[in-house]
């Protein structure tokens, strides 16, 4: 072999060895879990939009030096047999690296059987996907080597070593794009641990909330925990992580339920409860555990005087005061703002107040027929209503007044509660009126005076529904959710999970109880 060919083979061998080590590093990297969790998890790396490989996490599964030496010798033999064509040499090098990597890391892909009693997890990964991932980097190495060799055939050993290091940094930079966030692309159910369908259905909607849970799966989540109390947030994190990495069809939420019970006694035991009430309690607990404000300032009453400030200035003042006391990942995504105007029927004085909300609770108006649209319910919610007993701030007496709400700030996640359960004195009933709503919702028609930047985008996509069948005495909750990564719709009925067809419009639904929309 000529001196040039021998020199070139050594450089390629060095590059191949570096590429192998980087591929091997992907399977032996340490867990990114917060320090309070001591459990093994399965990590996934997405190579392209259609294929995934699974690398079992095991700190003890490290290839010994003897195996590496044998593979290096095998690689060297393959290099010596190759022609001087850069493209051919590249492809053979990639095949060697892929083969050795697959043998030592037991790379496998999942094939989920439709039979719930059989879990098949032993299909072989397509080597072509991994080849396509590594091939561009090695091509770049050989191209750079060829151009440098032609221009400087008599490089010194120091220059050669510097070039090899530069090529190594180039591959390392390109390989960062291959590493993906740990996600599991499978819908997962929740065990019913005793009349907990109300719990499971609301929880599934939060579990499938887009973007919100990406923060929980990031490495920065530890910094979000409130040092004074974090029990619910930690248990939610553990359950979310388990549902994203599990091979099971369903997981047990008993530890999260116990943590919520410790904070909110109402949801202890095995009584059937209201799903909307539980959703509020869950978000409240998560907010308190993630509140960035560790020492709340003393509470004070705020005023709204249009003679001193504009509506925009009053809104900002009230909202900033709120964030000075309550500021968390939950408020980032779920909190909106309403403007309330109360007008005295005698002196016409207006009392203004800005209130934050985490859901819009819509009552059913008196209608003719058995069907109503979601837009009609929103109009009714924002329409003027009469108040018989209200102390006017100017008259200082009890007056008849009118009150009207306006949407002033829009949250990224809009939760709508349809008040199907009617309570008045001893009278209790469930309202079974059909509601027509779409997979898309435009709120712009309900923005009247607000100029807040959050109202510039009023377009929402439906991603979660909590449904209730039955009556007040005997009923059942379940959820229908769009998976945040696969974008497929699933019916999540406790432990049972089944894929369903997405709908553009829900024409006549008398079971929808909670609707969750995410901003487009």
UniProtKB/TrEMBL annotation:
EC number annotated for this UniProt entry: 3.4.19.12
Residues forming coiled coils: none
One BP term from GO: proteolysis
Sample GO molecular function, one term: cysteine-type deubiquitinase activity
Record InterPro entries: Peptidase_C19_UCH (IPR001394), USP (IPR028889), USP_CS (IPR018200)
Region (Disordered): 149-168
Lineage top rank: taxon: Eukaryota
This protein's name: Ubiquitin carboxyl-terminal hydrolase
Low complexity: compositionally biased ranges: 149-167
Catalysed reactions listed for this entry: Thiol-dependent hydrolysis of ester, thioester, amide, peptide and isopeptide bonds formed by the C-terminal Gly of ubiquitin (a 76-residue protein attached to proteins as an intracellular targeting signal)
Keywords noted in UniProt: Hydrolase, Protease, Thiol protease, Ubl conjugation pathway
Lineage per the UniProt record: Eukaryota, Sar, Alveolata, Ciliophora, Intramacronucleata
Family to which this protein belongs: Belongs to the peptidase C19 family.
Domain spans labelled USP: 188-520
